[in-house]
Amino acid sequence: MLEWTVRTHCKEYELGGSFSILLFFFKLPNVPDDPSKWPLDSHYIGAFHAMVDYPPEEGNEDRFISGFVHINKPILKRSPQQSPPSNALKVEHVVPFLKKNLYWGVMKVRTRELLPILLATIAHSRRQADGTVPDLSSFPSLEVMVMATPLTFYPGSEYPEAGEPVLYPEITRGKPGGAKD
């Protein structure tokens, strides 16, 4: 079995404050124009939230951060290869599905509002943000990458053992904020 994950990697201070990277299946024009409604949209599959205390301490201006969003459940829910479910998670089904359907957007958030935003996202209730959606060209360090980690279940073991993750840069390459060459 594979555990599919979206990794976001970026400079922590590049946007000048706290932000969220929201992931969707299907292009952003298919989700609401109002970014405060993005987490409530049926295309929304998860997010990475960065609480950034700006300005940075001296020497930390170029520090990178990463976030991970596990996407097996959304893949199983939306993939055309649903029977049996294990087929839906195979590389030959997931890679073309994600190449066509995985998109993301970035939303700036006021730091003091981040905790209520996280709680609102979890509760699927109204989200408060400053409403700023930066153009991804103003966020050149952003790299969204997909990886799959093989999981092996051994007899008598309560949990699976994780193998080495495999990166699939072809899924996001060519999209703004996608895999870098």
Structure description:
This protein has helices at 72-78, 85-88, 91-101, 114-123; strands at 2-11, 19-25, 44-50, 64-70, 102-108, 143-152, 161-162, 166-167. The protein has four helices and eight strands, in the order ββββαααβαβββ. Strands 1, 4, 6, 7 and 8 form a five-stranded antiparallel sheet that branches. A three-stranded antiparallel sheet has the order 3-2-5. The two termini are 28 Å apart. The longest helix is centred in the middle third of the chain and has 11 residues, at 91-101. The protein has 181 residues and is of the alpha+beta class. Residues 122-128 have low confidence and may be disordered.
Short description:
Helices cover 18% and strands 29% of the residues. The protein is α+β, with helices and mostly antiparallel strands. The strands form 2 sheets. Strands 1, 4, 6, 7 and 8 form a 5-stranded antiparallel β-sheet that branches. A 3-stranded antiparallel β-sheet has the order 3-2-5.
Percent helix among the residues? 10-25%
Counting DSSP H or I runs of 4 or more residues, the number of helices is: 4
Global outline: globular
H and E order: EEEEHHHEHEEE
Low-confidence stretches: 122-128
Structural class: alpha+beta
Would you spell out the secondary-structure blueprint of this structure?
Blueprint (H helix, E strand, L loop, with lengths): L1 E10 L7 E7 L18 E7 L13 E7 L1 H7 L6 H4 L2 H11 E7 L5 H10 L19 E10 L8 E2 L3 E2 L14
Antiparallel strand pairs: 1-4, 1-6, 2-3, 2-5, 6-7, 6-8
Observed structural traits:
29% strand, 3-stranded antiparallel beta sheet, 8 strands, 4 helices, 181 residues, 5-stranded antiparallel beta sheet, alpha+beta, globular
